[in-house]
Design goal:
- Keywords: Cell membrane, Membrane, Transmembrane, Transmembrane helix, Transport.
- The protein has 22 helices and 7 strands.
- By secondary structure, the chain is of the alpha/beta class.
């Protein structure tokens, strides 16, 4: 993706923008602290809080307008104009740095915040126009990696440039700010066109517009829950990063270099977690990673909160490298970052996929607005816990861990099927070398019926792990009612079916449940053979699929498995599960065919198509 024009220019443009944002902010804070305060006698705390407020205020004022602009204008042209605004702002900032005009720099910080607030909506809204749905998770992972690495590098370079002597420092800062902004604009010229699906004029209504986009997001419960989830991440991240210098001073007992090292561990952890998310997702939205990420944040955060203070005063980073406790703190912060990457990427992808083209940017704008509010809430939370109640940093960090754990448990209980599906996905990849083809043939939304040949008792798990959407499936009632596995089948959404001989009304009730699932927009999986193959071949499809389609005319996605015949869960050389496993990590291929129109589909045509796909799956194994 980083070599393709549809993604690379945008990626580097936004990464350079994030780098410049943080370089400018941190340079300004260092100049205020070490130059302006001693020279003019200003209050350090007041200046730092004023700077933070000036940067975050534009997100409250202009996020709604930025979302409307991104929805109404060509996103390519909007990105170029915003990069020009950044370049103009940095040129003014370079002059202000050179002449040490600190009040002007504070005003320009507000301008930089405005540019970031306007760029935020188009940043995530443009991805679905240039990337396929199966590429969105990977695209979001790269964007998050680029953002956090840029934040880290910008923060570190600010310290280096500010430490230079006199005019050399001012010149280096000025040239870097302008040079990075110019590079970002030049790269943005390569962004492909991204026309609006609902062009039109945009009214500037800062306050009423902000209230309106929050109301619009509230009307889409799934999107709004995603936005709240993202805002929880920024609440936790802002809380950790704000108190990290105090943690280094009071617990690590070290200098500023330790802050940079721990910040690097956190930022690299977020980037690594984002890439791990893309790897585990396999090109699909994997909602089960959200609670997993939150639980990792909570567990690592709790371990960090329980770390005792390191003995010593003003320890250097070199001295700390010999202290096991410091390595454990760095590992905890890296794991908090990994959990954050696993948590945040699926949420951004969910918001993108669940939003329609004509209002996607406004949903991202609502996200930026909520993020700003939650970061303000994080500051208030820190003041209340640390200043009003006088709690220690250990108690504060334990509270953050508790919030993350509570979030993970809530999401897990609200949607256990997603976590179970993730566990199945991981298990099947451990047991087999899986090769998938045509997963994009399953509709991204709406009802569908997936039919497949039935080779082994692992078929349902592999299909469930390979599908980009959760699958409901039919199974024999005696197995469904197994006392040891019934909980698993209920969470997985299995639909029990009994034979007419055992229960005359069993099939009718099962078909009613299938119909209810399809009318609710779900995907149902069916093995039309009705039993495991006795010889590895595809056998005659029964009439159940015809009965389902006569009740609910939904798209039918044929699929075929190859590579499981001969496993201990198949009927080869004896009944399934009655012999010992002989193979581990066998090659298994799952091929999905193109959807078939229900009115032109019956059991006979489906059987022929599945046979054809089975041949393709067998060839896939040999490739």
């Amino acid at each position: 993706m980083l070599t393709q024009r549809r993604f690379a220019p945008f990626f580097w443009s936004q990464a350079l923008g994030a780098f410049n944002d943080n370089l400018f902010k941190n340079v300004l804070l260092l100049l205020l602290t070490f130059v302006a305060v001693p020279r003019h006698g200003w209050d350090t705390g007041l200046l730092n809080n004023l700077a933070a407020g000036l940067f975050i205020l534009p997100f409250l004022l202009f996020s709604a307008w930025g979302g409307a602009l991104a929805d109404r204008l060509d996103k390519q042209r909007l990105i170029r104009r915003l990069k020009l605004l950044e370049l103009a702002t940095m040129c003014a900032a370079a002059a202000a740095v050179w002449f040490e005009q600190f009040a002007v720099l504070l005003g320009l910080l507000f301008m930089m915040g405005t540019q970031s607030a306007l760029f935020g909506p188009v940043k995530y809204a443009i991805l679905p126009q240039h990337l396929r749905p199966t590429e969105l998770v990977r695209g979001n992972a790269w964007v998050n990696l680029g953002t956090f690495v840029s934040i880290l590098l910008g923060t570190l370079l600010a310290g280096v440039l500010a430490s230079l002597e006199g005019s050399w420092s001012r010149a280096a800062i000025a040239l870097t700010l302008v040079g990075v902004a110019l590079a970002g604009y030049l790269v943005s010229l390569g962004v492909p066109i991204a026309p609006s699906s609902a062009p039109g004029p945009v009214a500037w209504r800062p306050l009423s517009g902000s209230v309106q986009i929050l109301r619009d997001s509230w009307r889409h419960p799934r999107i709004f829950r995603g936005l709240l989830g993202i805002s929880v991440f920024w609440f936790l991240g802002a809380s950790y990063l704000t108190q990290l210098p105090a943690w280094v001073r009071d617990v690590v007992h070290a200098d500023e270099t330790a802050v940079s090292a721990l910040l690097a561990a956190f930022a690299l952890g977020v980037g690594g977690g984002a890439l791990l998310c893309a790897r585990l997702s396999g090109g699909r939205l994997e909602v089960g990673l959200i609670p997993l990420g939150a639980l990792i944040i909570g567990a690592a955060g709790l371990d960090l909160a329980l770390q005792p203070a390191i003995v010593g005063e003003q320890l250097s980073l070199v001295a700390l490298l010999a202290v096991p406790g410091f390595w454990r703190m760095a590992l905890d912060l890296a794991l908090i970052g990994v959990g954050g990457g696993l948590y945040i990427v699926p949420l951004y992808t969910l918001v993108q996929l669940a939003s329609h083209d004509e209002h996607r940017a406004r949903m991202i704008a609502a996200n930026n607005l909520l993020n700003a509010l939650f970061m303000i809430l994080a500051a208030v939370f820190g003041i209340v816990v640390l200043s009003v109640f006088g709690a220690s940093l250990h108690v504060f960090f334990a509270g953050l861990a508790g919030i993350a754990l509570a979030t993970g448990i809530y999401v897990l209980m609200a949607n256990p099927r997603s976590v179970l599906r993730l566990a199945i996905f991981a298990l099947t990849h451990v047991l087999y070398r899986l090769r998938f083809t045509g997963r994009n043939h399953i509709p991204a939304e709406g009802p569908a019926l997936v039919v497949c040949n039935h080779v082994s008792f692992m078929d349902a798990l592999i299909l469930g792990g390979g599908s980009p959407r959760p699958l409901r499936f039919l199974m024999d009632r005696p197995i469904y009612e197994s006392p040891w596995l019934n909980w698993f089948f209920r969470i997985a959404g299995a639909i029990p079916v009994d034979s007419e001989r055992r229960d005359p009304g069993g099939i009718r009730r099962a078909l009613e449940q299938v119909s209810l699932a399809l009318r609710s927009g779900e995907v149902v999986m069916l093995f039309p053979e009705g039993r495991l193959t006795p010889d590895g071949d595809v056998h005659r499809f029964r009439r159940g699929v015809d009965m389902i389609l006569s009740r609910d005319a939904v798209p039918v996605v044929p699929a075929a498995l190859a590579g499981l015949w001969g496993s201990w869960t198949s009927n080869r050389e004896g009944p399934a599960l009655a012999k010992r496993p002989r193979r581990f990590r066998a090659k298994v291929a799952l091929v999905f065919g193109e959807p078939m129109a229900p009115e032109a589909t019956n059991s006979t045509s489906l059987e022929a198509k599945v046979r054809e796909l089975k041949t393709a799956a067998e060839r896939r194994i040999l490739d």
